[in-house]
Specification:
There is one protein chain. By secondary structure, this protein is α/β, with parallel strands linked by helices. The protein has one domain. The chain is built from 3 helices and 3 strands, in the order βαβαβα. A 3-stranded parallel β-sheet has the order 2-1-3. It starts with a strand and ends with a helix.
């Protein structure tokens, strides 16, 4: 598996498909690609669990995912609201 991990966070009016062109251009040969889907944008009920829709909760969900996958270092790409999530996450979990 490639050593570089790329994590993406999409914008509020979009979904993970906005990063598919980048993913296919880089491919599995060059990096591990994780498209983090904001709750409610995956076709499931966004009110599940303790998610309240705040950037705190989104950052916590992302941290849980990365811990579960044992990912310590990664490149984080965010578009629009995803960029806000990226910045907030980076401050909260340096």
């Amino acid at each position: 598996m490639p050593e570089i991990t790329v994590v993406t966070s999409h914008g509020g009016a979009f979904d993970t498909s906005e990063f598919y062109k980048f993913e296919s251009a880089f491919g599995e040969r060059t990096c591990r690609w994780i498209n983090f889907c904001l709750p409610g944008f995956d076709g499931l009920d966004e009110r599940r669990g303790s998610y309240s829709g705040g950037v705190n909760d989104v950052s916590d969900l992302l941290e849980e995912l990365l811990n579960h996958l044992n990912i310590k270092e990664f490149v984080f790409l965010g578009h629009s609201f995803g960029g806000f999530v990226r910045n907030y996450y980076s401050l909260r979990y340096p």
